[in-house]
Design brief:
single chain; mainly alpha; DNA polymerase, domain 1; hpI Integrase, Chain A; 3 strands
Length: about 300
């Protein structure tokens, strides 16, 4: 089967299975790159792809500066595509199965208190000086992620009807396309309520979506990426990425550092597998040890 037709057939199948737009776009980009590599190397049929082709492609990606995490993501996309070809009986075995994943660094960056204060104060200053809706919007996005740990896509799709101010909860559609309810603090509830009043006054016609663009339409993935890119340039933090995911990691980090149980963290982060949660808790184990040594009640007791 011609590789370019097989690739399109695979994308159609993902769409049929209601895969998210973000994942389909990732397949188009990451898997498309591999398909182009094969065709450029005169591998035009799926049946001709070998272990060596997959391995050599990933080695070249490594030489171009791709990190271990990116390499592993590309490998997973290739495996998924070739597994589909096995299901369709185009090939008998998946040649990418024998390709081993790269070992990844387990360090995950989080913001410290000073960095968070700097970012929030930056937006406060702009809002006071320019009375800008966009400064208020971006400020509230950060506060909402820090207070709930919700994902970038969930921020984009958040509607006013998803916020229950009485019971202080937010409803989102998570990765599994399942509606999930997240508790919010009284502080965040008041912040969102004040923002809603501001939006009504600013736009006159309140949009269904909480965070909108300049034309009062739903925020897009590209627009939110530009927000964090702009903030990153203004802050110029060293060795830490300013992104929605870093704010989500910071939320998780603070929960772990507070002594919250892994089970409770899993529920708030909405990890499908507690092993993911345990990886975070284990990662910050040294910090927990330091905090325990510093604040343990036995330190002040004569025993």
């Amino acid at each position: 089967m011609l590789l370019k037709f097989a690739f399109q057939d695979f994308l159609d199948d993902r769409q049929f299975k209601n895969t998210t737009k973000i994942n389909i776009r990732n397949y188009q980009t990451l898997l498309g790159e591999f398909v182009n590599y094969c065709i450029e190397n005169e591998v035009i049929n799926v049946e001709d792809i070998t272990y060596a082709h997959v391995r050599q492609y990933l080695l070249e990606c490594l030489e171009r500066g791709n990190k271990a995490g990116t390499i592993n993501t590309k490998l997973l996309r290739i495996r998924a595509f070739l597994n589909y070809m096995v299901e369709c009986e185009v090939i008998k075995n998946n040649p990418a199965k024998r390709v081993k994943k790269q070992k990844e660094d387990v360090k995950i960056d989080v913001f410290n208190d000073e960095q968070i204060r700097q970012m929030l104060n930056f937006y406060r200053r702009i809002k006071q000086r320019e009375k800008s809706y966009f400064a208020y919007r971006d400020y509230l996005m950060i506060v909402t992620i820090l207070g709930t740990g919700i994902r970038r896509g969930e921020i984009i799709n958040l509607k006013w009807t998803d916020i229950d101010f009485v019971n202080q909860t937010i409803s989102v559609f998570g990765k599994s396309r399942r509606k999930e309810t997240i508790p919010i603090t009284d502080k965040l509830s008041k912040e969102l309520s004040a923002y809603q009043i501001f939006c009504k006054q600013y736009w006159k016609d309140l949009n269904d979506y909480v965070f909108v663009k300049r034309d009062n339409s739903q925020l897009t993935e590209n627009a939110i990426m530009l927000v964090f890119k702009y903030l990153s340039q203004k802050m110029n933090f060293k060795d830490i990425r300013v992104s929605a995911h870093t704010f989500r990691h910071t939320f998780c980090h603070r929960l772990a550092m507070s002594g919250m149980s892994a089970f409770a963290i899993q529920k708030l982060m909405r990890h499908q597998n507690i092993a993911v949660t345990m990886r975070y808790v284990a990662m910050w184990g040294n910090e927990l040890r330091e905090q325990n040594n510093k604040y343990n009640p036995l330190n002040t007791l004569d025993v």
